[in-house]
Amino acid sequence: VEILSGLYRGHTTGAPLCLLVRNTNVESRSYDEIDGRPRPGHADYVALGKYGGFNDPRGGGRFSGRITVGYVMAGAVARKLLGTLGVTVLAHTVDIGGVKAAPQSLETIRAQAPGDPLRCADPEASLRMARLIQEVKQSGDSLGGVVEGIALNVPVGLGEPVMDTLEGDLAKALFAIPAVKAVEFGAGFAVAAMRGTANNDPFLVQDGGVVTATNNAGGILGGLSSGMPIIVRAAIKPTPSIAVPQKTVNISKMQEVSITVPGRHDICIVPRAAPVVEAMMAVVLVDFALRSGALPHLMKRR
Amino acid sequence: VEILSGLYRGHTTGAPLCLLVRNTNVESRSYDEIDGRPRPGHADYVALGKYGGFNDPRGGGRFSGRITVGYVMAGAVARKLLGTLGVTVLAHTVDIGGVKAAPQSLETIRAQAPGDPLRCADPEASLRMARLIQEVKQSGDSLGGVVEGIALNVPVGLGEPVMDTLEGDLAKALFAIPAVKAVEFGAGFAVAAMRGTANNDPFLVQDGGVVTATNNAGGILGGLSSGMPIIVRAAIKPTPSIAVPQKTVNISKMQEVSITVPGRHDICIVPRAAPVVEAMMAVVLVDFALRSGALPHLMKRR
Amino acid sequence: VEILSGLYRGHTTGAPLCLLVRNTNVESRSYDEIDGRPRPGHADYVALGKYGGFNDPRGGGRFSGRITVGYVMAGAVARKLLGTLGVTVLAHTVDIGGVKAAPQSLETIRAQAPGDPLRCADPEASLRMARLIQEVKQSGDSLGGVVEGIALNVPVGLGEPVMDTLEGDLAKALFAIPAVKAVEFGAGFAVAAMRGTANNDPFLVQDGGVVTATNNAGGILGGLSSGMPIIVRAAIKPTPSIAVPQKTVNISKMQEVSITVPGRHDICIVPRAAPVVEAMMAVVLVDFALRSGALPHLMKRR
Amino acid sequence: VEILSGLYRGHTTGAPLCLLVRNTNVESRSYDEIDGRPRPGHADYVALGKYGGFNDPRGGGRFSGRITVGYVMAGAVARKLLGTLGVTVLAHTVDIGGVKAAPQSLETIRAQAPGDPLRCADPEASLRMARLIQEVKQSGDSLGGVVEGIALNVPVGLGEPVMDTLEGDLAKALFAIPAVKAVEFGAGFAVAAMRGTANNDPFLVQDGGVVTATNNAGGILGGLSSGMPIIVRAAIKPTPSIAVPQKTVNISKMQEVSITVPGRHDICIVPRAAPVVEAMMAVVLVDFALRSGALPHLMKRR
């Protein structure tokens, strides 16, 4: 990382923090082979539709997962600011290829997930996930999964009613991560089969404060943080680059052809998505904290 | 509806279209009973946290589902504009309280859903949903469900890479609908258990154009529309207002108390959410269409 | 004024304050006479170019000075917020038709201008301005002038470097007032003929604080408030509606014709622009105060 | 200039064009001498007020005129886009230190100004300006002036009524240029002494189109472009860095002291501001052209 602006003698100056990471690890040659024959599951075809013939095919351009290095850099700054409020974010793998981690306590997740090779808080599930990845690697195929993000100690009332809900902005930020196809909060899609009596989280007094007995709301009511842990899950689709021949169209000839996508392939990006989910949660939360005046000391005068 | 500005002799003038619907059907009395005792599942508690003691409790204020009348008005305008591109949007009920509609063809959905009392394209499921609603009504409880939104004939390339993805903006718009807790596109959360070979949608030539054989992507690749139908599902939580006593906290005394929420209760708002989903999809799509120059004739000079 | 939202029992609720003033005093008939024959100095011609034939000609639509009632309403709210910081804004007439007010002390301006019929702090000049207005009224002509706006007690550091300078946002806000054609701060255009030794304002210690001996900068250095009074002047062009025949073009026939603009004519709107200048200054200053965290108590929790 | 993104094989790709110029020509040592003793006319004092003690004093940071290299880079791109509409922008020096250029025809300005060492279209005035600069240089003092910007062939109707007027956005962009203290359009401050009969520009038919006989409006009516040349003038204050002792305050001791500003001094930056004015005009005009759909071909599909 090269810091281009905004830092002087170890402190931010008020100027924009501009951090530069150069994308040097690129093989342009391999992409020439697929020019005009869009890879299934990739953005080649839509980029052609949007930008015509001049778009940069190298490495998938801005559609590549490499773009997330910027998210993580922003997240690192956001987490420093959130730290002044005592807010922490944490993401862990809860599903790879259909192998699900058993539900764990917050304490277990914080203790286990960061050190696990797949960022999974359930060691037994992690082993099965690892075996599945090895199997699928043999077949040249790829795997999806689910990452769960948690934010703790968020003050009550972050978010805006109506348009800029906390769920809406978190979801928008998570869908900016390539391969995310679904986002749910708290009980998520399970709410469809729940009754109001089961879904409503009763309020209790605990340690002199108000909490809820359950957290089906995932820490968000009416689009605003409730003070309970924010719980969000994002589904990651299987990596579209696979080592198996696939059907596509030669666009200039409008003929159906078969391609095998060249280049390196990731079998499963789910564990690598976890820090990106953390970064995006931190960025959204710090934006709302600044907007609500919850971080006024950051802007105080000498 | 009163049209305050932007229309003159049947045409828009270029001034903002301002449409006013007054919220006249309010019983303020009933809300006094719950002042300071936040209703579980409602925004009362977070509004208190955000705004202090001056927030307007009448009808839930901006947290009420009534706010969606504005969305539907905006959607009506957006659909007129989308019509000039041939784009249509349609939403239908696919789940109420765990009763799921069987998958239907696009033709069946278009034919059946609009006339069904529950906006469901599967008549048999619709009957079971209706029975479930009656049952739950007896018990004073409430039901959630899932609405699926479909946009047809969307040009290739709407959406922006990186931050303003089509998924992200659609999701943000859907989370602005009160009670939405989850949003998924195409195969959605099911991608977690799919392999790349199954999830990637192969490209084909059909009627002289490029289509995909399947639509697991829900019409969106790389955050941009692919030309295939856009498919999005939103989970709606059970209505939090129920006629059953619930636990909460008397905030000023910090004592746990029981309340029974007064006022009218909707057992299930899922069918009523469908037109709101359509409206929000239309608004997002027309914004991107304008942004991409796909609607330039709207701005042409005489 | 009808308050549509945002107030409950005398306090703001956090919802948008929506204030409605209906434009009832309109004679549509008189505008039919000039349809297709744009009035010189008015926006008729550019509105035709921008919106084609459907624009609303009644009263000039959004190009009319009537639009400023909204500015003044926003300004009233902004001034209440600024009051919590001790900031005040004041505008007065310094020139009508070339009759200039003699420079006055701040004390005199505050004492004299608000009660003067032309908002002028120099009583003798005010009399000559009034006589000039009477003369010009006889001839059916109109007069321009200059309004000076002053903001006192502005904290140091409001504004943003580079793009969102305090001068830039104040100027943009003032140019939103119809008929404003020029904006200058402090010494303004006179800086062109000044040397650096004369234009630079030396810093001094006064009453334990830092002030400048002169205020050629008009209270703004580097785009940020310096703590000295903010001084801005806006030139108002003569009202374009005059009771004298003028040359224009019949657009549909592309023929030069003569028109006499019907309807009521204001000889000079300069004194009426003063409260609008105050409102716009207040709105910009409160925006920057919120942005800088100078008003955190407005957002505090209970 | 290093192009970091957005270009591939000579064409833009749709990704952001990111251009990097490193600020290498900095002497940090000389600024240490003035730390805590703000230079009159500079942003040192307000930066201290806004950012506290950590701001970067090197070269004035973002308050330095060096920031305008970014404006000129953006302007270069904007001018390429405007070129597809036939729009050109041109700025020239009309006043240095009170020496005014005689009014010239558009043809003379286009022929003379670009080649003149002071960007002045009046050769005789240019010589007197040059002599004045030499004189002032001897005394260690500095000079201000006025730059006039002209945009030709602008389509009718660019700009937005009410808030985003063309004057407002041009003025905001010009006030982003360090040292600009005043902006006027067309007749500018002279409108104060004009009658409506003189200020209103009569419409005429010329070469089959509609023009105005005069251009007191500076090409802008009702905040929108009229099709006539856009004429704007910006006053540039004398460079605040002078080689003459000045009074200031030692902030930590709150004592009045005398400083002589170290480093290189520009006697007069007016001619160097002209290309920056051109750049800012181009950026604003291309933004409005895109917003109005006047440049739809830029976004068309293959």
Features:
homotetramer, 302 residues, alpha+beta, five-stranded antiparallel β-sheet, two-stranded antiparallel sheet, 8 helices, 15 strands, 29% helix, globular
Give your account of this protein's structure.
Four copies of one chain form a homotetramer. Chain A starts with a strand and ends in an 11-residue tail after the last helix. Chain A contains eight helices and 15 strands. In chain A, helix 3 crosses helix 8 and helix 6 runs antiparallel to helix 8. By secondary structure, the first copy, chain A, is of the alpha+beta class. Chain A is globular, with a radius of gyration of 22 Å. In chain A, a hairpin with a 4-residue loop joins strand 14 (246-250) and strand 15. Chains in contact: A-B, A-C, A-D, B-C, B-D, C-D. Chains A and B meet through helix 2, helix 6, strand 8, helix 7 and strand 9 of A and helix 2, helix 6, strand 8, helix 7 and strand 9 of B.
Question: Proportion of β residues of chain A?
Answer: 15-25%
Share of helix among residues of chain A? 25-40%
Stretches of chain A where pLDDT falls below 50 for ≥5 residues?
Answer: none
Radius of gyration of chain A from CA coordinates = 22 Å
- The average pLDDT score of chain A comes to 92
In short:
The first copy, chain A, is an alpha+beta fold and 302 residues long.
What's the topology here?
Four copies of one chain form a homotetramer.
Chain A: E1 2-5, E2 7-8, E3 11-12, E4 18-20, H1 28-32, H2 44-51, H3 68-83, E5 88-96, E6 99-100, H4 106-112, H5 123-138, E7 145-152, H6 166-175, E8 180-185, H7 196-199, E9 203-206, E10 209-212, E11 220-221, E12 224-225, E13 230-236, E14 246-250, E15 255-259, H8 270-291
Helix pairs in contact in A: 3-8, 6-8
